[in-house]
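From the methods appendix. Each design record in this collection lists the tokenized structure first, followed by the designed amino acid sequence. Records were kept in a plain field format so they could be parsed without special tools. The example shown here is representative of the layout used throughout.

RECORD:
FOLD TOKENS (183 positions):
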């Protein structure tokens, strides 16, 4: 049964450089649209025997049947008790598809703000160019995906294994401060 497609409908990026007097801002925005991710980490986090997800507090019970978090009973027990919930820990055919999530995202991948001293100042200092800058990478990610990072995949060995997330470390945020001095 096909329950998702890890290949995005499209990927995109936008890069721009804006200068005003001695200031300069460069940025890169990137993302993807239309791909699915199998969030395998949720299987363990929402498992009643070992899970630590706060979502377990909203699990299916007789009094809480309007939820997508599985019950602590199997499908056969639920059926024998004439309970009407649609989600269980049993072998329901669609059980795994609840862990397939929209992997679409938009990310502010890089922003750099720089300032270059005017030539009149650098000449007095005996240098040709002096530029100070600060740069940030992976600053903001907009997504509905509940895992750490919609851009990572646990199995990238071949195309048949992409789109599975086992809670790999997310792409880190980095900040860089620097000076570009030319004598």
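DESIGN:
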């Amino acid at each position: 049964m096909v329950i998702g497609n890890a290949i995005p409908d499209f990927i995109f990026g936008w890069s721009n450089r804006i200068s005003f007097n001695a200031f300069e801002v460069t940025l890169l925005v990137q993302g993807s649209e239309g791909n699915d991710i199998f969030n395998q980490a949720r299987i363990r986090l929402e498992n009643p025997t070992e899970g630590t997800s706060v979502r377990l507090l909203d699990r299916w019970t007789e009094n809480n049947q309007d939820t997508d978090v599985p019950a602590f009973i199997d499908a056969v027990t639920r059926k024998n008790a004439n309970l009407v919930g649609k989600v269980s820990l049993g072998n329901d055919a669609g059980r795994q598809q609840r862990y397939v999530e929209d992997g679409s995202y938009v990310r502010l991948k890089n922003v750099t703000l720089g300032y270059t001293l005017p030539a009149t100042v650098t000449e007095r200092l005996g240098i040709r160019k002096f530029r100070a800058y600060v740069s940030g990478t992976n600053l903001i990610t907009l997504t509905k995906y509940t895992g750490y990072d919609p851009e990572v995949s646990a199995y990238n060995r071949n195309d048949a294994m992409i789109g599975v997330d086992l809670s790999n470390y997310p792409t880190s945020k980095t900040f860089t401060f620097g000076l570009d001095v030319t004598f």
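APPENDIX NOTE: Strands lie at 10-20, 23-33, 36-39, 100-102, 105-116, 129-143, 164-165, 174-182.
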